[in-house]
Amino acid sequence: MSSILRGESRRINNKQRARHHLTPQKRQEIKEAFELFDTDGSGTIDAKELNVAMRALGFEMTEEQIEQMI
């Protein structure tokens, strides 16, 4: 019985991985978008950079909303 459950668990994990798989092209697009908004080149997006990114996407957010996202 436990081997059946382990097999089922592996099958579910494989499905989850497949959903999150990104092609190299998509990874590059995400990296470029991140770098566009990481204006100080720190490798992270701070509250100010996130606010700029959200505004560029058409979202006006309060400082509190931005802080909650971080």
Automatic annotation (TrEMBL):
Alphabetical list of SUPFAM superfamilies matching this protein: EF-hand (SSF47473)
GO cellular component: myosin II complex
Entry-linked InterPro entries: CALM/Myosin/TropC-like, EF-hand-dom_pair, EF_Hand_1_Ca_BS, EF_hand_dom
Compositional bias of kind Basic residues: 12-24
Molecular-function GO terms, alphabetical: calcium ion binding
Matching CDD domains: EFh
One Pfam family linked to the record: EF-hand_7
Domain of life: Eukaryota
Transmembrane helix in keyword set: no
Ranges of residues in domain EF-hand: 25-60
Segments of this protein annotated with the region Disordered: 1-24
Keywords recorded for this protein, A-Z: Calcium, Repeat
Protein name: Putative calcium-binding protein CML20-like
